[in-house]
Write a structure and sequence with these properties.
The structure holds two protein chains of two kinds. Chain A has helices at 4-32, 127-147, 158-183, 190-216, and strands at 41-48, 51-58, 68-73, 78-83, 89-93, 99-105, 111-117. Chain A is an alpha+beta fold. In chain A, a hairpin with a 4-residue loop joins β3 (68-73) and β4. Chain B has a single domain (10-204), classed as Orthogonal Bundle (Arp2/3 complex 21 kDa subunit ARPC3), CATH 1.10.1760. Chain B is mainly α. Chain B is globular. Classes of the chains: A alpha+beta, B mainly alpha.
Chain lengths: 217, 205
């Protein structure tokens, strides 16, 4: 008594049985992976005093240990090279160039870059720096003249003040940089995961539509 | 097992993209209308599996599931993996858009290979031991061959092959076992719930 219609109905019924099972599999994969861990490397570099610090990690927080860091100048000339330590850190003294490009090579085809301009934080009295200082001083002069403030009377030279301020700023900013380093990468979010699955379902819809039209036409 | 942007040379990227496009073409031609939802769901599983990390070893390795896709989809694993890799590149920044072709190829080609190597053993399925070991080897070897292919890509851009491949495969040994087990479990489950899914590929390939 098996009509072909019934048979095909049973067939579709059967194929529907797989859908909840697969959805459960995907659900387990999604929620089992939270907190989501990602699979890429990032490198972040910042200046502290006369040292450049770099922090490398796989997104999700795992430190890239023993990875190669290559440092290039803005023109792409290699400057130095080193390996990250147990904490994914690598530091080196600041090279005397305008900007550096820090390239992380964590093997197995993992690679990341960080571009770090150095001129704005350069302590060396380089040419662009002097040019920038000039208008500042001009602005200050009428102020100190009108208020009759004496020129540095305490016997501290301008360079010394600068050094003290720089040092204090470095100290104050260090935790901030650390915060930036730690919060910079959170890996894929749940929204990314769900939107990806949504895209795939959309593509399935498009595929079925096209296949249906082909059948009808 | 995603290769980041800026690692490979344009020639390798182009070669990988052309070969991947060929595979996707074969896969799309084979795809029948009633198989589209299955391909989509396995593509979604592949997409999400990359978020599951196996926190063993020096690098960070995640599940790939290409063996499972190959077993169930054959050549249709190519389009499924292409879509999954593209979304991983866009949403997770795994790999990249320029390396899409190479990454699709390195993951889908072993899938197809394992389909032809072990698919018959899984489908014959009379002896449970043959069935399970074939399914396990599909998951296990797909990851291993992917590691070798990625190592080959890195070798072509001048990295020494042996250390690169060794590091990759060492990092993925736990993944291989997990995927082997997972693929075997999925095959067993499907053989009970929906055996025609395992048989279906027989007709299409």
């Amino acid at each position: 008594m098996d009509h072909p219609e019934q048979q095909s109905q049973r067939q579709t019924h059967r194929s529907h049985r797989m859908i909840p099972a697969t959805l459960i599999l995907i659900g387990v994969l999604v929620f089992g992976s939270l907190p989501a861990l990602a699979h890429k490397v990032t490198v972040f570099a910042w200046v502290e005093g006369d040292q450049v610090h770099t922090q490398s990690k796989f997104s999700g927080g795992k430190k890239a240990v023993g990875a190669t860091i290559r440092v290039f100048d803005a023109a792409g000339q290699p400057l130095l090279e080193g390996k990250t330590d147990q904490n994914g850190r690598f530091q080196f003294s600041k090279p005397e160039v305008q900007a550096i490009n820090v390239v992380l090579d964590a093997s197995s085809g993992h690679r990341a870059e960080w571009f770090l301009p150095l001129t704005s934080t350069s302590k060396a009295a380089s040419a662009p720096r002097d040019a920038r200082r000039a208008p500042l001083e001009k602005k200050h002069q009428p102020l100190s003249a009108s208020q009759g403030l004496p020129a540095p009377a305490s016997g501290i030279s301008e360079a010394e003040i600068r050094a003290i301020v720089d040092e204090a700023l470095d100290r104050k900013l260090a935790p901030l940089f650390q915060l930036l380093v730690d919060s910079r990468e959170t890996g894929p979010r749940l929204t990314d995961v769900i939107s990806g699955i949504g895209y795939i379902m959309g593509l399935v819809g498009v595929g079925l539509y096209v296949a249906n039209r082909k059948k009808a036409g | 097992m995603h290769i980041s942007e800026g690692v490979l040379t344009p020639a390798i990227l182009a070669g990988g993209a052309i070969l991947a496009a060929g595979g996707v073409g074969i896969g799309l031609r084979q795809m029948k209308q009633d198989q589209i939802p299955t391909v989509g769901m396995l593509s979604a599983a592949f997409f999400v599996a990359s978020l599951i990390h196996v926190p063993i070893g020096p690098a960070s390795a995640h599940l790939v599931l290409n063996g499972l896709l190959g077993l169930l989809l054959g050549w249709m694993a190519f389009p499924a993996i292409l879509v999954g890799t593209a979304l991983q590149a866009i949403l997770f920044q795994f790999g990249g858009l320029t390396t899409l072709g190479v990454n699709t190829l390195t993951m889908a080609l072993p899938a197809v290979l394992c389909h032809y190597l072990f698919g018959r053993g899984v489908r014959a399925g009379r002896d449970r031991r043959v069935f399970m070991s074939c399914a396990f080897l599909t998951g296990f070897l797909a990851v291993l061959i992917t590691g070798l292919l990625v190592g080959l890509c890195l070798y072509l851009v001048g990295e020494a092959f042996l250390p690169a491949a060794q590091a990759l495969i060492a990092a993925h040994i736990p993944v291989m076992f997990i995927e082997g087990g997972l693929t075997a479990a999925c095959a067993l489950f499907l053989s009970r719930v929906r055996p025609e899914l395992l048989e279906g590929i027989h007709g299409s390939s």
